[in-house]
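Onboarding guide, step 5: your first structure request.
Type a short instruction followed by the sequence, for example:

Predict the 3D structure of this protein.
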Amino acid sequence: MDVLESNLRPLLQPITRNLPGPLREAGTQLLGATCYTSLVHDINISDVECLKLAISKALGVGIIAASSVVKIPQLLKLLNSQSAEGVSFLSYLLETASYLITLVYNVRNGFPFSTYGEVGLIAIQNVAISVLVLQYSGKGPAAAMFIAGLAGAAYSLYNDNVTPMSTLQYLQAGAGVLGVASKLPQIITIFQEGGTGQLSAFAVFNYLAGSLTRIFTTLQEVDDKLILYGFIAGFTLNAVLAAQMIYYWNSPTSNKTSQAKSNPRGTKEVKQAVGMNGIQKGSGNDKSKRIPSTRRRG
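The system replies with structure tokens like these:
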């Protein structure tokens, strides 16, 4: 390590010691003055504690950047297909509620933004997806109620007079349970329909990687077991979703879709061809039996 440092310093220090002011300030705010000086100014990569902090910060920033687009493929799939098949609204409702509580809990505790920033970005995308799922499920009016309910909940949680910190701590413990429970309806929906439908593989695998990364960043930067246990449980169920995605990879259509394609007109054809009492319509013999003849008998 010493040999590596001695080789790197002559190359990097002329750059790191002459960084523009805004970059120095950003680095100091991100790493802290001590670790910024050790890692950036002095190129002391043998400082293990600061190195782990730098890795954690880099992963956190990466997660936040990725979270800004993680649900975009899911949104596009819904918009292009005009169908919510395979996507569970209950799953998104529970996840959004969990994220809302977690976001307010982190903000009110003053935790570093790099440890929770993606929560707010994903929550916004979840709201958009939930509205589309309701719309394509024939429940458009419920979307307005959903948004109004979230707005009221956000105000209540952020207001210390309405929700004291002691109460918010209990809610955060419940948010971990909600986060875990939010995955179960989606897992069950995939199992029942025999396919992943319009569920985005990009979102699923990014969630898996993100939850694993968050375990590391939480261990490094946030001394809060409630948040840590929530990420561990979330990673476990995200792994189940990822396994389902792999298992059904070559089965893009669900059982529901397959049945709809094989008989697109459903029971309408049966009702048109068969009467309520099971007698086939349109038969000439039946018609002659029911309609009296006007022919004169000789």
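Each response can be followed by summary notes, for example: The chain has two domains: 2-46, 71-257.
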